[in-house]
Amino acid sequence: MGTSYAGEAKPDQDVRVWMDGCYDMVHFGHANACRQAKQMGGYLVVGVHSDEEITKHKGPPVFNEQERYKMVRAIKWVDQVVENAPYVTTLETLEEYNCAFCVHGDDITVTADGVDTYHIVKTAGRYRECKRTQGISTTDLVGRMLLVTKSHHEPDDILPDRENTRRMSLCKESVSPWTGASQFLATTNKIIQFSNGREPKATDKIVYTAGAFDLFHVGHVDFLEKAKSYGDYLIVGLHSDKVVNRYKGSNHPIMNIHERVLSVLACRYVDEVVIGAPYSVTMELMNHFRVSIVIHGQTPCDPDVDGRDPYEVPKGLGKFQQIDSGNSLTTQDIITRIIDNRLTYEKRNKKKEAKEAAAYDAFQKLKNENRHESAAVNIEQD
Questions:
Q1: According to the 3-state scheme, what is the secondary structure of 197-215?
Q2: Where is the Cytidyltransferase-like domain (predicted)?
Q3: d(CA 296, CA 315)
Q4: Coil/strand/helix, residue 262
């Protein structure tokens, strides 16, 4: 607890920080908010809302509460998760968990009645903001998945509204003033911020696993937790977008290589990521990283382009292990959830955008009124 990471200033270890949210379809934007909140103190407590509360105020979540609790616990900057956290953050909640203040991104979240969920802690001066990660949002990811829907998913006569899904996933002029989609721009600094900067010790047993890890989800978390148990240092190889598309087809991957790198790096069980790892685990890779064991899950594995088994080398060395994580959830299962509930999610996102737009208009009006009052006071003083 309280570990400092590469490129970050050492936080005040005595300050406990509160952060809360829905954390539906947890992505690297959520993780980055946790990273920033962690920098403001020494211990980060994250409250996660229940399915009932989210359905009441926003609409049904994609993931159930148990899945969301586990995903947030897997973020390496999170020290404690509070289940069934209240939707409106109260001073009583901060006191109960001994937190000095609450942190949230620089957007506004509102209740079913359009009330700012942080108005109480803001009024009390116990609120701080962190920067949203541009280019990623749950709404955007839902839109990307809906665009994957083609005739091989469902009959053409019930395809989604292409214009609406295009707007959700691609348009930079979204109705929402805060969470509209924008292009994610990868930087080396962001990778450094997400990296733990720890080199393996000479005595460490190094575990290697590889895959797409697209739409990083609770099934991946369970798999990586178990993979890490086979050694001391876990390296994850991420296949390039081109390679993933070759063996998954359609519009895969949903998230590009840069997004997938940050998603995996944010997981507490991962020590290092190989960007654009070869599909076949080579002898050069085994020797370079001093790999002790190569782990693969229960999903079928396609042969390489030359027809060979991609795990031929580690199998020949007696360094290959296939494991069962106990969680059968796949990226395709998530896409299917979205497709099966397409109309519900489209309705939910439209409702969310309308509430945010109204809140933003009220925010702008109040800011303009305060500016005019300030100007009037200055005139009087002159």
A1: CCCCCCCCCEEEEEECCCC
A2: 19-142, 208-300
A3: 11
A4: helix
Q: Cα 345–107–184 angle (5° rounding)?
A: 70
Q: In whole angstroms, what is the distance from residue 251 CA to residue 144 CA?
A: 9
Length, in residues, of the chain = 382
Partner residues linked to 80 by β-bridges: 45
Distance CA 240, CA 314 (A): 21
pLDDT, mean of residues 321-328:
96
pTM of this structure = 0.80
pLDDT value of residue 165:
41
pLDDT (tens digit, 9 = 90+) per residue, 174-198?
333 333 334 567 889 999 999 988 9
Q: Which two tokens stand for residue 126?
A: 């116990």
Tell me which residue has tokens 């003083």: 381
pLDDT value at residue 40: 96
- Kindly write down the DSSP assignment for every residue of 82-145, as one continuous string: EET--SS--HHHHHHTT-SEEEEESS--B-TTS-BTTHHHHHTT-EEEE---TT--HHHHHHHH
β-bridge pairing 233-238 and 272-275: parallel
| C-alpha span between 35 and 131 (Å, rounded) | 11
In this prediction, residue 103 carries a pLDDT of 97
- pLDDT per position as a tens digit, 260-293: 999 999 999 999 999 999 999 999 999 999 999 9
- In whole angstroms, what is the distance from residue 338 CA to residue 283 CA? 40
Q: What domains does the chain contain, in order, with CATH numbers?
A: 16-136 (3.40.50.620), 137-183 (no CATH), 188-322 (3.40.50.620)
* pLDDT level of residue 107 (50, 70, 90 thresholds): confident
Q: Give the integer Cα–Cα distance in Å for 168 and 101.
A: 33
Angstrom distance (rounded) from CA 141 to CA 17 = 28
Q: Say if residues 41 and 15 touch (Cβ distance below 8 Å).
A: yes
Taking alpha carbons only, the member of 311, 289, 287 closest to residue 301 is: 311
